[in-house]
Design brief:
two-stranded antiparallel ribbon, 6-stranded mixed sheet, alpha/beta
């Protein structure tokens, strides 16, 4: 499709998501209200792939996982493992920097109820493919949730049936990079006990080890 790694601010490819963006922009004109761009180190050896921006998270702030609970756990873990430096204050102006890693999403625009459709996931995949292609040092991926897991596989021409999603499951992609999967660091998963801080730190540490970051 010849797309770059970042969608245009007014990307029209998914009509439902574009309409939801416009609805949010009308209600909250001071928010970012656009496809959330990737964030991190251009020489990253680790790419962290989430699901989609949260309405009051990246859709509001313009930086992945910034401004919602999932970001507290994600960035806190990155700082603990030495993959980030500075202080995370849930604000894209906080000066936080990532070291050896980058964060992106399988779907770049906030979907209603945090649920993109299969067609929207497929429509946005070329941006993920372009982002992967723009990171020549990649050695590993950390997929947050099954949709991110499947999107990384499909971006490498692999059918999801070839590598079942599971927490801390590891799959070697055709490029030789490792795909490590984790339950998504959402408030729902942590509040229900499906994902603990220790579990999340373990999955990220495994991805970091494969990345050599």
């Amino acid at each position: 499709m010849g797309l770059g790694a970042e969608p245009a601010k007014n990307c029209p490819l998914c009509p439902r998501l574009a309409a939801y963006r416009a609805q949010n922009a009308q209600a909250e004109p001071g928010w970012f209200n656009g496809p959330a761009p990737s964030f991190g180190d251009p020489n990253a050896t680790l790419l962290i792939v989430g699901l989609a921006p949260g309405r009051t998270g990246a859709n509001r702030t313009g930086r992945p996982f910034t401004g919602d609970y999932a970001g507290d756990l994600l960035y806190g873990t990155l700082l603990k493992l030495g993959l980030a430096q500075g202080e995370y204050r849930a604000d894209p102006g906080d000066g936080l920097q990532l070291k050896g890693c980058m964060i992106t999403n399988a779907v770049r625009c906030a979907p209603p109820e945090n649920k993109p459709t299969p067609a929207e996931i497929a429509q946005c995949r070329p941006f993920l493919e372009a982002q992967i292609g723009a990171l020549p040092c990649l050695k590993a991926f950390l997929a947050l949730g099954s949709i991110a897991h499947d999107s990384v596989l499909r971006a490498h021409g692999v059918k999801p049936s070839a590598a079942k999603f599971g927490h801390e499951a590891v799959f070697t992609l055709p490029s030789g990079a490792a795909l490590v999967s984790s339950y998504h660091c959402s408030r729902y998963n942590t509040q229900t006990g499906r994902l603990t801080t220790v579990m999340f730190e373990s999955a990220m540490a495994k991805a970091k080890a494969f990345a050599g970051a």
